[in-house]
DNA sequence: ACTCAATTGAGACTCAATAACATTCTATCG
DNA sequence: CGATAGAATGTTATTGAGTCTCAATTGAGT
């Protein structure tokens, strides 16, 4: 069943490419499939590794070239955590606006539904006569309390 | 009068340094003063230029070493605009939580009071048993409509 | 199958930020 | 007040994510 859903998204990706006059290549499909089998949040480098498992000819440059296509087609989204590298996440079935809560110790990312925020950000921006493209509520936190519960697994290594 | 206020902040900075057993150096003071005479939002490189006007011995490394001290002492704040470099702003008299609205065309940054957000972000994080360190609401927008009003002065150059 | 533009991989490159290290300078103590 | 320890500095090299170049390859319409 999970496979069927992924294939459906893959179809969307193929349609997106052809509609834009772009080619459906093995590398692009490998990168797409990697994005949809990566864990929740992944970096470009994570994606490169995963994609190379599916097609070992995939290069770093191609991953970076594919990422804008995947975001433009709304299949993945950027998750900016204020570090000097970006995270991404597959848009599997996200409907509502989400706030991102990032643990500064273990870099774990929680995404929490926050539908009210979407309206709020728009209101703020439109007061300035700006047209909203994107918005994010980011909360930097520490999971001291979580450690005792075993939910904070990583110690900041990157 | 403006000078008096700045001197007051400078005193805070000096106290911060000595309280932490750090030294009050010319370079650190030059960087502090530069931060408080830069425009609204500045990059590390902007700060280096301004600081060198006050003390031409200031090096890039020292600026990068001073920035965490200035943020830790709450005299400046990071303003992350999702680019690959960071902006900073002096905390002159900001009391309330502010949302950041960034024009994707001209890179102009608007900071808008959004006191409600502070409560909201905390609520979200504390549901996860996380202790909040910092939070930001960032809205990416385009100022097409502003251009006609002449408020969008820069065309993306960086 | 043929063709040609789109796409690719390899590697050079950019640029913000950091690290290493020998030298300089601050603040304290005698 | 001058000596001293070690904090801070500038210089230079380095990192690392992301971008660019270009010759070689490949997809897809014919």
Kindly describe this structure.
The structure is a homodimer of 158-residue chains. Chain A is globular. In chain A, helix 2 packs across helix 3 (44-54), helix 2 (26-35) packs across helix 4 (60-72) and helix 3 crosses helix 4. Chain A folds into 2 domains: 2-90, Arc Repressor Mutant, subunit A (Orthogonal Bundle), CATH 1.10.10; 98-147, Dna Ligase, domain 1, CATH 3.30.1490. Chain A has 6 helices and 6 strands. The first copy, chain A, is α+β, with helices and mostly antiparallel strands. Chain A has a 3-stranded antiparallel sheet with strand order 1-3-2. In chain A, strands 5-4-6 form a 3-stranded mixed sheet, with helices on one face. Chain A binds chain B through residues 78, 80, 82, 84, 99, 101, 103-104, 110, 112, 114, 116-117, 120-122, 124-125, 127-146, 149, and chain B through 78, 80, 82, 84, 99, 101, 103-104, 110, 112, 114, 116-117, 120-122, 124-125, 127-146, 149. Chain B binds a DNA duplex (30 and 30 nucleotides) through residues 21-28, 43-45, 57-62, 64-65, 84-86.
């Amino acid at each position: 069943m999970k496979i069927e859903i992924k294939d459906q998204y893959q179809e969307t990706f193929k349609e997106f490419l052809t509609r834009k006059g772009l080619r459906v290549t093995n590398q692009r499909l490998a990168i797409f499939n990697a994005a949809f089998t990566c864990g929740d949040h992944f970096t470009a480098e994570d994606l490169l590794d995963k994609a190379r498992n599916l097609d070992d000819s995939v290069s770093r440059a191609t991953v970076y070239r594919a990422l804008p296509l995947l975001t433009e087609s709304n299949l993945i989204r950027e998750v900016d955590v204020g570090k000097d590298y970006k995270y991404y996440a597959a848009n599997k079935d996200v409907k509502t606006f989400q706030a991102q809560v990032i643990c500064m110790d273990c870099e774990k990312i929680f995404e929490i539904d926050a539908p009210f925020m979407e309206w709020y950000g728009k209101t703020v921006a439109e007061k300035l006569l700006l047209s909203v493209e994107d918005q994010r509520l980011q909360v930097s936190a520490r999971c001291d309390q979580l450690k005792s519960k075993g939910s904070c697994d990583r110690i900041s290594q990157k």
